[in-house]
Amino acid sequence: MPPDVPPRPSRSNPLTWIALGCALLVLIVAVLQRRDEPVGDRTVGEVTRVGVADGDAIPAYLRTAADQLARLDAASPGSWALVSFARYLTPAQTATALGGTPVSAVVARVPLPGRQTEIVRLAAMRLPDDVVAGMAELADRKDREAADYRARAAAPAASADPGLRRVYGTGASVSSREAAAYRAGCACVYAAVVRDAPDALRALATRPAVRGVDPAPEVRRLDRTVFTPPLPEQRDVARPPVDSGLAEPTPRPGMGDSSEAAPTVSGPSPDGGGPVAGAGPPNPAPTS
């Protein structure tokens, strides 16, 4: 009989442990890399609205805002708030009305009788200088808009359509008047976005020319917040301004009638460098 051969040592157990160790190392590295990845912004798509909604009663809105302001905890940190004015103010009058309250932006429009003018939000860290500078930029943009409307009115498409030509003519007239008003530092500001402590906001609500202070402690990002202050001339229900220049049997596409949003001033509308012939009718009295 052949001599007994000693059994060979098994290599499967060491290899198995090595494989498991490598897998565990890969898993640990993957977890550490995932922790280093930046977390996405979970607020994408969320919009906060502060102010009075279209169709709501303005007196009820002001009472609700005053009640919320009274209930703000005095010990809480500073809160954003929407300040509505009782009348349209010049940049200097706005600075006086707000006193030393830290301000971030103002809301303005040119109050032309019978015209639905564009509502804009101007960055205003320093009053009144930033508002004056913002109005100067607005005046230049409105001049370009007026020139573009006049070019569209002279195009063949408008020459063959009296109604379209009238729309463009109205747009040119309104834009020119807006430009002149802003260049003169008009009384056009009717609201402001501020941030201050509760007691300071309550004191602000008692100042002359201040119609109401709507606290908004829920606001986290201004670029995702829509402010809709009531217009000074409206006392009952919030609604878009009446525009006698838009009296047509059927509204044309693109003619907005909402005064809800207040976009930051940034760029021309419409684009003066765009094509003229065959272009669709822009809003003759631009709104937001």
Search tags:
288 residues; disordered C terminus; 7 strands; two-stranded parallel ribbon; alpha+beta
Overview of the structural elements:
The protein has 288 residues and is α+β, with helices and mostly antiparallel strands. The chain has a domain of 145 residues. It is built from seven helices and seven strands; from the N terminus they run H-E-H-E-H-E-E-H-H-H-E-H-E-E. It is extended and about 90 Å long.
Spatial arrangement of strands, main beta sheet = 4-3-5-2-6
Helix content: 25-40%
Through-space gap between termini: 103 Å
Largest sheet: 5 strands, antiparallel
- Rounded to an integer in angstroms, the radius of gyration calculated over CA atoms is 30 Å
By oligomeric state, this entry counts as: single chain
Strand content: 15-25%
Give the low-pLDDT segments.
35-41, 248-288
State the shape: extended
The number of helical runs is 7
H/E series, N to C? HEHEHEEHHHEHEE
Structural class: alpha+beta
Q: Which whole number gives the mean pLDDT? A: 79
Work out the number of β strands: 7
In short:
This protein has about 290 residues and is an alpha+beta fold. It has helices at about 10-35, 60-70, 90-100, 130-155, 155-160, 160-185, 200-205, and strands at about 50, 80-90, 105-110, 120-125, 190-195, 210-215, 225-230. About 30% of the residues are buried.
